[in-house]
Design goal:
Blueprint lengths: L1 E4 L2 E3 L2 E3 L5 E6 L3 H10 L7 E3 L4 E11 L4 H7 L1 E14 L5 E14 L2 E10 L5 E9 L14 E12 H7 L5 H6 L2 E10 L7 E7 L2 E10 L2 E3 L5 E6 L3 H11 L3 E5 L7 E11 L8 E7 L1 E7 L1 H6 L6 E5 L2 E6 L2 E11 L2 E10 L4 E9 L9 H5 L9 E9 L4 E4 L1 H27 L1
Length: 429
């Protein structure tokens, strides 16, 4: 560490002119980087890595002397800039963000920081910019640098590695699957538990666009009933699997025909605990599949004598997700070219299905049960047969409701008796 001073003692303080003050050079040793990482509150397993020195300059300085360091820092004033030629930020999962020409500017005022600006570039030609205004400051270092009551942020990312954003938001690869390897992002608004308005922003890439308006509350992203997340996405195989497959598990291999409109998803009343995966997810979802190519889930298609690829334009679906379980209330889903309404649930964590519907007997093909198959000619082909899908996706059991079978047996016996009675009456005649 080397330090150079250019100022004067005025009373009980060190003071400098607006263009002069303190310059320091600090080698980026492992101990220094570990200490800086802990001060930044990096998650367990995350780390800063670098070998270039930190260069720090303070201008327009007023620093009280003669007292404890913490008390002096609480009362100090300065314009501070820091530069790092090269630094790498590694997430707990191993993803790394390499930054170069990192520049940090901040304004130190009594009781804390007033403003902070960050600029950096990435080796692939991307950039990072963030400007923060700190309002209603809490106590500074002497009280552990408690978070200020409100922070206003205006940030932008260009050609930013999606894997890094995914890791730091604990999305388990979801953002990479949806948006691809690079994204551009803007974020504006207040931070903090007591923020007066949601944080708004937009993520864009070659594969789609996601706009959001959310708050960070109790370790979760939350939104109101009239705001949340709106996504327009290319229906890639990964989006088909991780978005459509999770919301409508009865459809597989969902894709867009050439020229079709992209997939749209709107999320309201969102609550998504960070780092909890889908287990704690709750939201109201509007899914707009539009025109798609698809196949029915094989175990269901086998009961309907199908499984071939079909093209259909789906009406928007309204779905509820509560604590990681998607709930269906008479949601219309087209299977083998016919529309049926499904009620039940799909657990996103265990992949457990419990869905029911009714469909006319004439639509059932293949093995539909020994009794129904043997007595098809005695039953009304429009008889509504209740089907139940239970078990683990993608191979749940497809069952006919036992109470229905009991009623069907009664109907067949009644028909047999009526036929026999008619035969006997004809004999007498």
């Amino acid at each position: 560490l080397t330090v150079a001073l250019d100022g004067a003692l005025v009373g009980d303080s060190f003071r400098s002119a607006q263009d002069r003050g303190v310059e320091a050079r600090l080698d980026a040793t492992p101990a220094v980087l570990a200490h800086l990482g802990s001060r930044l509150g990096l998650a367990s397993g995350a780390a800063l890595v670098g070998d270039a020195p930190f260069v720090l300059a303070a201008r327009d300085v007023e620093w009280p002397l003669g007292g404890p360091f913490d008390a002096a820092l609480e009362a100090a004033r300065a314009r501070i800039s820091a530069g790092v030629p090269r630094l790498e930020l590694r997430a707990a999962g191993g993803e790394a963000l390499a930054l170069q020409d990192l520049a940090l500017d901040l304004r130190l005022v009594p009781a804390g920081l007033d403003a902070l600006g960050l600029r950096a570039a990435t080796p692939a030609g991307g950039s990072v910019r963030a400007d923060l205004q700190l309002v209603e400051l809490a106590a500074g270092l002497a009280s552990g640098w408690r978070a200020p009551a409100r922070v206003e942020i205006d940030a932008a990312l260009e050609r930013f590695p999606t894997a890094v954003a995914d890791a730091w938001l604990a999305q388990e690869g979801f953002l990479v699957d949806v948006l691809g390897p690079e994204l551009t992002a803007t974020v504006r608004g207040p931070l903090g538990e007591e923020a007066p308005a949601p944080l708004a922003g937009e993520l864009t890439s070659d594969l789609g666009r996601v706009a959001f308006a959310c708050r960070l509350q109790d370790g979760a992203l939350v939104s109101a009933a009239d705001a949340g997340l709106d996504a327009t996405l290319a229906l890639t195989p990964l989006v088909s699997e991780r978005v459509v497959g999770n919301l409508v598990p009865l459809l597989v291999d969902v894709a867009k025909p050439e020229g079709a409109e992209p997939l749209r998803v709107a999320v309201r009343n969102l609550r998504a605990p960070l780092g909890a995966g889908v287990a704690g997810l709750s939201a109201d979802v509007r899914l707009e599949l539009g025109e798609v190519l698809y196949r029915a889930l094989p175990t269901l298609a086998a009961k309907l004598g199908g499984g071939r690829e079909r093209t259909k334009s789906f009406a928007p679906m309204a779905l509820q997700v509560r604590a990681g379980v998607v709930r269906y209330d008479a949601v219309p889903i087209s299977i083998e070219g016919e529309e049926f309404r499904f009620t039940g649930s799909f657990d996103l964590t265990s992949r457990s299905l419990d869905l029911g519907t009714e469909l006319p007997l004439r639509y059932l093909k293949g093995d539909v049960g020994e009794f129904l198959e043997r007595n098809r000619d005695r039953l009304d082909p429009d008889l509504a047969v209740p089907l139940r899908l239970r078990g683990t996706w993608p191979r749940p059991r497809v069952e006919v409701d036992e109470r229905f079978l009991e009623r069907a047996v009664g109907n067949v016996l009644q028909n047999v008796l009526q036929d026999e009675l008619q035969r006997l009456l004809k004999k007498r005649d």
